[in-house]
# Entry
Amino acid sequence: MKALLMKEYKKLTFTDVPDPVIESGHDFLVKVKAVSICGSDVHGFDGSTGRRKPPIIMGHEAAGEVVSTGKDVTGFKAGDRITFDSTIYCGSCFYCRNGQVNLCDNRMVLGVSCDDYRRHGAFAEYVVVPEHICFLLPEGLSYEEAAMTEPAGVAAHAFRLSPVGLNDTVAVVGAGLIGLLVLSILRASVSGKIIALDTDGNRRKTALDRGADAVFDPADPAAHKKILDLTGGRGVDRAFEAVGATAPIKTALSLVRKGGSVTLIGNVSPTIELPLQTVVTRQISLFGSCAIGGEYPIVMDMIARKKIDVASLISKKAPLSEGQIWFDKLYNREDNLLKVVLIP
Ligand SMILES: [Zn+2]
Ligand SMILES: [Zn+2]
# Structure
């Protein structure tokens, strides 16, 4: 089959590779119909995260059609339209049995190669996945939209583990793809004011178009005072941080009221500088949110019912053979791209 293989950092080759094979009776072979490029692929592409060690076929945000199934598969058949979780979890460790499959001790992420494992992903004509991570697509949901279920699930998981209360005012720091999806989920779920912050004017405009009540540039010295004015002088009840660096995390902490919370989704920087006394003396709760823990059916339904608009977040659909071009553009932050979906 054809696949987009990263043989060395930053070099993607559209080339022939052996077809993936079904290894267990519970696996099936999927013809990939759409697969989107994740920020973590772009950050892994230069080796900086250590989670895309060549050779690797990346790609974990995908949807496709079942081609053939292992002998023990009962819930799916050839021809089914499906998407799948990015995390392959074991189902039997402490965390899986506790319902926290995203924290599985034996987790493997599709399209990731690190010190512990290598699992080829979906930047290819075909991929093999186990039955227990797959979901049937609702009628009318396109493969391109379905490929966005994974990032929408990441946003939904962060929302679900945060104590967002009735009519809470919420700030979203970072209006990139995940921040915009958090914003959509908040808009569909809470009645309070939603404030989005981003240094990029285009992204602030997109946040307004997607339902933010107010948007600010965190670099604007007047922004903090204006946000206090919008929140009775107290600050927001909840903040979500979708970048993962010292400056935006400090912004989120500076905006939240005493007793409020900040949910951390972004993880670009391995370590950050934390204003400890702000957190302790203002009694701010910090939540780390990892991947997706059971939110697939929820967000698929929300996407299918247009409660989360993902179609407008897709900046470009391109053939898989053009993978290198679109990775380079995303890596160099060209053309203000949000999401690029590749079609094998
Ligand atoms: Zn992803
Ligand atoms: Zn497990």
Remarks:
- Residues 199 and 217 are 5 Å apart (CA to CA).
- The pocket of zinc ion (ligand 1) is lined by residues 38, 40, 60-61, 86, 150-151 (CB under 6 Å).
- The chain has two domains: 2-151+293-343, 162-288.
